[in-house]
Write a structure and sequence with these properties.
248 residues; 35% helix; alpha+beta; Ubiquitin-like (UB roll); Fumarate Reductase Iron-sulfur Protein, Chain B, domain 2; 2 domains; elongated; five-stranded mixed beta sheet; single chain
Length: 248
């Protein structure tokens, strides 16, 4: 039987805001995004919400539901406690544009700083050949839908607001997909250490927990990158070789 639930939704913009309660009648299989659409259609069309596919593949409908970063289109209402209002807030890490819509453009700006795939012979007409094991390794990282839930749950970006020292889990995965590509010849270890700030991550794995694509962000991406940086900059033998060779 249908029942009525309460959604407590953030209303406001970059200058601040408040919450507003809405009563919504549920239906079988309802997700939080459905409830937001009901509010927009029947109660308040001015409520702003970003969405696109409603299939958990575009990453547009990211929000904080009951304090947890989630995709609204993937969060079923019947899986949430309904004895109290379901709280729907915008991502905390990024500036609010209006209501549930946030400005995530910072992610695209830092992505421009990352050196793209670099082949040994860019002009070669020979087909690129890769072993299946190498394809599988980088394919995991390509599943990212850029919902930025991992960026939102990262305490360095969320709680400490240090976008100046850390690119965040999403960009670490982007870097991992390039660094672990068998045909890529670029060396991004200095960039990882001094610009992207891979050393700032203390491996809490909170980013992995919220990933809707179940990418092992920490274990398969960030940790191997940290190991590469450690091998290059903190291995005593390599340090001695750099000193002998006159390299910083």
């Amino acid at each position: 039987m249908a029942k009525t639930i309460t959604l407590r939704v953030f209303r406001g913009d970059a200058n601040g805001g408040t919450t507003q309660d809405f009563r919504v009648e549920t239906f079988p299989g309802m997700v939080v995004l459905d409830a937001i659409h009901v509010i927009q259609k029947e109660q308040d069309p001015s409520l702003a919400c970003r969405w696109n596919c409603k299939a958990a593949k575009c990453g547009s409908c990211s929000a904080e539901v009951n304090g947890m970063p989630r995709l609204m289109c993937k969060t079923r209402v019947d899986a949430l406690p309904t004895d109290k209002p379901i709280e729907v807030f915008p991502l905390k890490t990024f500036p609010v544009i209006k209501d549930l819509v946030t400005d995530v453009s910072w992610n695209y700006e830092v992505a421009k700083k990352i050196q793209g795939l670099t082949l040994a012979d860019e002009g070669s007409k020979e087909p690129l050949r890769m072993q299946q094991i190498d394809v599988d390794r980088v394919q995991e990282f390509r599943k990212c839908i850029e919902c930025f839930l991992c960026q939102n749950t990262c305490h360095i970006l969320r709680d400490n607001e240090r976008k100046d020292v850390f690119f965040g889990p999403r960009q670490m995965i982007r870097l991992a997909s390039l660094e672990m590509h068998p045909l890529d010849v670029a060396d991004r270890t200095q960039f990882l250490k001094e610009v992207a700030g891979v050393g700032a991550c203390n491996i809490t794995k909170c980013c992995t927990e919220v990933c809707p694509e179940h990418i092992q962000i920490t274990d398969n991406g960030i940790i191997p990158l940290k190991e590469r940086v450690a091998d290059t900059y903190f291995d005593p033998v390599r340090k001695l070789l750099r000193w002998v060779g006159g390299r910083k």
